[in-house]
Amino acid sequence: MSGRGGRATLIAVAVVLAWLVIGGVAGPYAGRLTEVATNDNAAFLPTDAEATRAQDLAGEFVDRQTIPALVVYERPSGITDADRQRVSADAARFAQVPGVVAPLPPPIPSEDGQALQIVVPVDDAEGEEIGTVVERLRDITGGDRDGLTVDVSGPAGLLADLIEVFSAIDGPLLLVTLVVVLIILLVVYRSPVLWIFPLLAAGMSYALASVFVYLLADADVVKLNGQAQGILTVLVFGAGTDYALLLIARYREELHRHDRPWAAMRTAWKGAAPAIIASGGTVIVSLLCLLLSSLNSNRALGPVAAIGIGATLLVMLTFLPALLVLGGRWAFWPRRPREDQADPRAEHGIWSRIAGFVARHARPIWLSTAVVLAVLTLGLTQLGATTLGQSDLFTQRTDSVDGEEVIARHYPAGTGSPATIFTTEQTARQVAQVAQGVPGVADVRPLSTGPQTGPPEENTTPKVVDGRVQLEATLADPPDSDGAERTLRELRVAVHQVPGADAVVGGFTAINVDTSDAAKRDQNVIIPVVLVVIAVILALLLRALLAPVLLIATVLLSFAATLGLCAILFRHVFDFPGVDSSFPLFAFVFLVALGIDYNIFLMSRVREESVKRGTRAGVLAGLAVTGGVITSAGIVLAATFSALAVLPLVVLVELGTAVAIGVLIDTIIVRSLLVPALAYDIGPKIWWPGRLSRANGEREARDAG
Length: 705
Prior knowledge:
Multidrug efflux transporter AcrB transmembrane fold, 23 helices, RND superfamily putative drug exporter, MMPL_dom, alpha+beta, 8% strand
C-alpha cells in the first residue's frame, strides 16, 4: 500500500512541476491578448453583405481607405474670428499627425454660425493604432477653452473610445474577477489554505487558454475582439472554479471513506470526471455552434471561448487533482475530513432538509416554480433588440458621444459619415434623384475627379472607376440611430429599383443594418442546433430520452424568465435604451449551456444514486449531496460574470447581468426545486426508455407493496 502511495505522490509531484513549467511559458501571453485583438465592426461582416461589397468598391475610388474622425468646435454665442484662427491652426497640426491622410478638407461651418467641423480622414490601415491617432488629435485640440467646446467624434472617435475601454480587460477586469472568486472561495471553504488550489488552477487554465488564443489570433486563424477577450476571462475563471468545487466536494466525501488521499482522489475523479467532462463538452459544443454564424465576430467568440473551456477541463482534471493529493487532508484545515465512513448526506443538513421538503410537496413545488418563471417571461414584451446608438453604447460619457450630440444640434446628423451608393455611370443621375427623394436623406452628391479637399460638390464631374460612380448621401439622422437605419433600408429599396443601376449601398449605417440582419438570421439557425446538440449529449449521459427533454424544457423556461426579468431591469432600473442585436444569441448560448451544467451535475449524481437506492430516493440523495456545491458554483459563476460591469460598455454590462441572473435562477430555483420536484413526482419513468426506468419501477412497486 505504501509503495502505491509513494508512486502516486511522485506522479502528483511530476504533474504539478510539469504544469508549473507550462504556466511559466504561457503566463506572459495572458497580458498580450490585446496586441492581437481587433475591434473593426466592418471586418466582422459576412463577405456577401451589401455593406461589405460597398466597402470593397470604395477601395477602388481612393488610394487609401480612411475612417473619418470628426472634430467639432461649438460656441453657443457664435463662432468668433479667434475661434476660426484656432481651428485653422489645429487643422494644420492635424495634417502632420502620422496616420492622418492629408490634405484635410476645409472646416465646415454650421448654418446657425455656432459650430465648425473638421473631417479628419484617418488611414484605415492603422488598425488598432487608430486609437493612438485620435488621442493625438485630442491632445492637439487641448480641450475646451474660454467657452469654446471641442470634441473628437465620428467613427474614428468611437473606435478610439472602444479601444480604450477594451484596454482595461488585461488589468481591472482580471483583478476584479480574481478578487470576487477569492472572496467566495474563502466563504465557501472557511479555510485559509484550500482556496489556493482552485484559484491557482483557474489561473493556470487562463494562461493555457491565452497562449493558444494568442497564437491562433496572431496567425489570423481566429479573430479576437475585446468582447470575446472579456468573456474569455470571466468564463475561464467562473467555469474553472465551478469544476474545481465539484471535484473538491467529491474528494472531501471520499476522504471520509479512504485512509489515503490518493485513493480518495482516484474514486472522486472517477465519480466527478464524467459529469465535469459532459458539462464542459456541452459548453464547448454549444460555443462551437457559433461557427455557423454569418458574423465573423460571433464565429470568433465561439472558438475563443471553447478553447478557454477546453483548457479549463484539461487543467482541472490533471493539475488540480495532483495539487489536492499533495495537500492531503491538511488542505481542508481547520475542518479536515476524517476516515469515519460517514454518510455524505450527514455533512449537508440544510440540503437534506430541503430534499425532505421536496419529497413532501413535490407536485406543488414544481407547479408553483414553473408558474413563477412563466410570469417572469411576460417581461419579454419590454425587450427590444436593436443596434445601440453611439450615445447609448457606453455607460458613461465619452468624447465621441459628446461630439455626436454637438453635431446633431448644428448639422445634418449624418455629416461626415454618409451612406455611399455605387451605381453605373449611365444611371448615376437617376439614382441620385431617387436617393434625394427618400425621406431622411439630406443631400446626395457624387464623388468628383481630382483631389478631395472637402465634401463632394454639387455640380462636379463624377469620378468613374470601371464604369461605376460613387454617390455620397448625407442622412438627416445620426448614422448610428434607428432613424438613420430606417432611412438606409428605404434608400436601398429605392435605388435597387432603378433599372440597370446595379446599385450597392454601404457606409457606417449600412454596416449596422447588415450586422443586425445577420444577428437575427444567426438566432434562427444557431439556437435550434444548440438545443439538438445538448439533447444528444444529455441522452448519452443519462441513457434516457424523457429526462433530457424535461431538463431542456426547464432551462428554456429559465432562459425566457431571465430575459423577461432583465428586460424590466434594463428599461426601468438601469435606464438602458434597449439591447444590442447580438444580445439574445449570446445570452442564449451562455445561459442554456451553463444552465444545463447544473442539471448535469445534479442528474448525473441522481442517476448514480438511483442505481443504488431507487429513483425517488436517488433524487433526494443527489439533491442533498450536490445542493451545497452546485449552489456555491452558481454563485461563483454569477459573480464572475458580474465582473463585466467594470467595463463601461452597455452590451457587456447587459450580458454579464443576464448571465448572473440566469445562473442564479438556474441554481436556486430550477436545480434546487423545479427539477428535483419534477423528477421525484415522475419517478422511475424519468429514465424512459432506459433499463433504469423499468428496474426502478419494479423496485418501487415492490417497496410500495
